[in-house]
Specification:
The protein is an alpha/beta fold. It has one domain: Ribonucleoside hydrolase-like (Inosine-uridine Nucleoside N-ribohydrolase, Chain A, Alpha-Beta Complex), CATH 3.90.245. The chain is built from 13 helices and eleven strands. The longest helix has 17 residues. Bound molecules: beta-D-ribofuranose and calcium ion. The site of calcium ion has 7 residues, from loops.
């Protein structure tokens, strides 16, 4: 399976990227970066670091948007992911240099070069995807599959009461992408914040999955240290790895439903809110598959495989 990961390179993004690199069926064509958890520069640097830690081959990195479509000041989530976005596990240097082609162009080109074959997994704000759609009217049709981590399908925002982080950072982009899916009659696969909450992993189980002295295991142990210090929960929640698991191993999906999804872009209290249409009728034709449940044991096996690579 040809895969592109679009990421804002925080802690759970790192684990998700490691998971993609470790999966035997995944051929990672590229990683595209976007601001979100950290700045675009930091996200691009972190992506290089993650590929270094995994001793990955020379996978192209394409830098994307440094700002949301319509906002001048990019937000961040360093209060959650640490100043370097990797909970202090980052490295000052990386051997990887991003390609000069901007991510939006690279996404459109790669989808055109491999029609119907690419699974794009987005782990950050949808800014690069919105641009790729604008650059190439056939972009969504050329993709094989679009898997999105974002949104709160039952109204449980994690950044505001109304909104999940990835959709809140660039609601215009998220609204645009779902509207474009609707127009193109394409169903994106959506892994939401509530889906994440439905799959907690007890810290005791997580600790036993990530033991070892190999570089990847040590890197994940360091990030976990930050998670333990800051999140203060007896469980870990991994939104981005869940999205990658669904993309790479769709057989783990337990419950899902086809719905029409829209995103609120207005500058009101509900900015970034995920609107799910539960009506039936021609105006409610689905543009998304909402994943609600996955096989937790298989999910943990994929996580373990990611952490223990090279060990
Ligand atoms: C999303 O927000 C980010 O902080 C995480 O990396 C994840 O993509 C969860 O709401
Ligand atoms: Ca992310």
């Amino acid at each position: 399976m040809k895969v592109i990961v679009d990421t804002d390179a925080g802690i759970d993004d790192a684990i998700a990227l490691l998971m993609t690199l470790a999966h035997p069926a995944a051929e990672v064509l590229a990683v595209t970066t976007v601001m979100g958890n950290v700045s675009l520069e930091q996200a691009t640097h972190n992506t290089g670091v993650i590929l270094d830690v995994a001793a990955a081959p020379d996978i192209p990195i394409f830098k994307g948007c440094a700002r949301p479509l319509l906002q001048c000041v990019p937000p961040d989530a360093v209060s959650v992911h640490g100043a370097d976005g990797l909970g202090g596990a980052g490295r000052p240097t990386t051997t990887r240099v991003p390609y000069s082609e901007p991510a939006g162009l690279a996404l459109a080109r790669l989808a055109r070069e491999h029609p119907g074959q690419i699974t794009l997994v987005t782990l950050g704000p949808l800014t690069n995807v919105a641009l790729a759609i604008q650059l190439d009217a056939d972009f969504l049709v050329n993709l094989g599959q679009l898997v999105i981590m974002g949104g709160s399908i039952d109204g449980r925002g994690n950044t505001t009461p109304a909104a999940e982080f990835n959709f809140l950072v660039d609601p215009e982009a998220a609204a645009f992408v779902f509207a474009a899916c609707h127009r193109a009659r394409i169903e994106a696969v959506l892994v939401s914040w509530e889906t994440t909450l439905a799959h907690p992993i007890p810290l005791t189980s997580w600790d036993s999955l990530i033991t070892g002295a190999a570089p990847v295991a040590q890197f994940v142990q360091q990030m976990t240290g930050h998670v333990k210090r800051t999140w203060r929960s007896s469980n870990v929640f991994w939104p981005d790895p869940l999205a990658v698991a669904v993309a790479l191993a769709p057989e783990i999906i337990g419950e899902q439903e086809r719905r029409l999804v829209a995103v609120e872009p207005a500058r009101v209290a509900s900015r970034g809110h995920t609107i799910v249409d539960y009506r039936f009728g021609p105006e409610s034709a689905p543009n998304a598959r909402l994943v609600r449940k996955v096989d937790g044991v298989k999910f943990q096996n994929l996580l373990q495989q990611a952490v223990q690579q090279g060990g």
